[in-house]
Amino acid sequence: MPRLLLEICIDSVESAKAAIDGGADRLEVCSALAVGGLTPSLALLKYIRNNLINKCDRPIELYAMIRPRDGDFCYTNEEIEIMQQEIVMMINANLVDGFVFGLLRVDGTIDRENCSRLMRATNGMAVTFHRAFDVCCEPFESLETVIELGFKRVLTSGQMLNAADAIHLIAELVKRANNRIIIMPGSGINRNNLHSIAKLTNAIEFHSSASIHKHSSMQFMNQVSKTHFNKWKVTETNCVRTLSNILTQNDHQHTEDDQ
After folding, report:
1. How does DSSP assign 234-246, residue by residue?
2. Do the beta carbons of residue 80 and residue 66 sit within 8 Å?
3. Mind listing the GO molecular function terms for this protein (predicted)?
4. What span, in angstroms and rounded, lies between the C-alpha atoms of 17 and 237?
5. Most buried residue, 91, 148, 158, 165, by most Cβ within 10 Å?
């Protein structure tokens, strides 16, 4: 069985450092994780690639979110053009190992045409279909479509708010995928549920923010800053390390069971 992998979603240099120090195997780099993640800036990608990943003593993959706005996943032609251009710019800058995106039609089915357009723009790089999958209308039909389109993995909470509440569906997706695509559980994964999610779903990759709230160090605060700008979420090294250790223990258990 392949080694279990941990992907951490981040939207800042601080979180990227914490994810790497904690043992993450892959970074999903975004902006604005508070709204589910949007396309990150080239400057953020460049800094993480050149100053963190390239100086690390182990391989770490860097995937970039391609999502032009908050809200749903049914995009206009203008938005899709922007998504395509951002993919091309990231490839030309040699900054990423893969991409994360997902597009739906108004009826809740996978937008085959525009997914295919963006897949062509990636020039064969690995792509994750993100949690747009969790708001599609037919998960098993959608899984087959995503496979046909050439995506490498699906990030999913099993069409629930938290992956831990959808273990049955995630396990069925893993079974039906039958090694044709990776099913990666995500949303609400933490130290208390990762072991059971891994054991019960047979998934081999897992996605988490491994985050805590960080409070502002500003000495001056007025009512506006106290209400809106006093705290935010950042990835925490020990949270990542704990998740990584849980997956390592599960790896050892699988090895022992196979012997």
Report:
1. EE-HHHHHHHHHH
2. no
3. copper ion binding
4. 8
5. 158
CATH number belonging to the domain at 5-254, selected among 1.10.3720.10, 3.40.980.10, 3.90.550.10, 3.20.20.380 = 3.20.20.380
Running DSSP on this structure, what letter comes out for residue 55? Answer: T
Tell me the C-alpha distance between 154 and 64, whole Å.
15
Instruction: Please answer whether residues 128 and 151 qualify as being in contact, where contact means their C-beta atoms are separated by less than 8 angstroms.
Output: yes
**Residue showing tokens 């897949």:** 119
pLDDT 10s digits, 85-121: 999 999 999 999 999 999 999 999 999 999 999 999 9
CA distances from 195 to 22, 50, 204 (A): 17, 33, 12
Task: Quote the pLDDT of residue 251.
Answer: 76
Q: Which of 31, 33, 27 is nearest to 53 (CA)?
A: 27
Q: Is 209 helix (H, G, I), strand (E, B) or coil?
A: coil
Residues 6 or more apart whose CB falls under 8 angstroms from that of 155 comprise 100, 128, 129, 130, 131, 133, 184, 186, 207
* pTM of this structure: 0.95
How many angstroms separate the CA atoms of 31 and 144, rounded?
A: 30
Rg over alpha carbons for the chain, rounded to the nearest Å, is 18
Contact between residue 198 and residue 163 where contact means Cβ atoms under 8 Å apart: no
- Report the distance separating Cα 259 and Cα 256, nearest Å: 5
